[in-house]
Amino acid sequence: xxxxxxxxAAGMLIxxxxxxxxxxxxxxxxxxxxxxxxAQAESEQTEAEVEEKNDNYTDLEEKGESGEIAAFAExxxxxxxxKDMEALADLCSYPLAVNGEVVENxxxxxxxxxxxxxxxxxxAVVADTDIAALEETMAGIIMGDATPNIIFxxxxxxxGITGIN
Length: 165
Prior knowledge:
5-stranded mixed beta sheet; alpha+beta; extended; 56% helix
């Protein structure tokens, strides 16, 4: 019986000590929490404003009716046919996505090189695009049925390439 009492006492001691470990708790004061929430709200507002500014569909409709979209697409076709990086760089709206990577400015775009931008497949797709039949999508105007393609849209009232895939 004495052994059982000792075992029982030892067991109770072990269980009571198990919950005594030190735990660190991070305390966030209301002012820090408010600062974080305000920063997130500003970030979300900025992203929403950019999306709204860059997704002006009525602007694309007007540009389509005036022939600007067809003229811009023809400039892209000419740059691709001549593998002219300078001409294509002038048509880009920075930052833009190239093969899934963000290119921040013209110099970074030119540094990619013609072999990355003017692949045989991409040049063929762009050359085969019927510029009279281009349609607006949520992404913008897409030259190509799938990948590879070149995407452009109205950014700040001007047409610009926003994606090269």
